[in-house]
Amino acid sequence: MTELADRRGATRPVPDIVTELPGPKARAHIEFDARYVSPSLPRAYCIVPVRGDGLVVEDIDGNRFLDFAAGIAVNSTGHGHPRILAAIGQQARDLLHFSASDFYLPIYARLAAELDRISPISAPTRSFLTNSGTEAVEAAMKLARYATGRQNLVAFLGAFHGRSYGAVSLTASKAKYHARFGPLLPGVYHVPFGSRGLDELEDRVFRRLVPPEEVAAVFVEPILGEGGYVVPDAGFLPRLREICDRHGILLIADEIQSGTGRTGKMWAIEHWGVEPDVVLAAKGIASGLPLGAMIARSELMTWTAGTHGSTFGGNPISCAAALETIKLLESGLIENAAERGEQALDGLRPLVRRYERIVRDVRGKGLMIGVQFDSAETGGAVQDACFQRGLLVLGAGDDAVRMSPPLTVTEEQMAVGIRLFRDAVHEVATTHS
Ligand SMILES: Cc1ncc(COP(=O)(O)O)c(C=O)c1O
Question: Distances from the Cα of 15 to the Cαs of 33, 357, 387, in angstroms?
Answer without folding.
Answer: 25, 29, 10
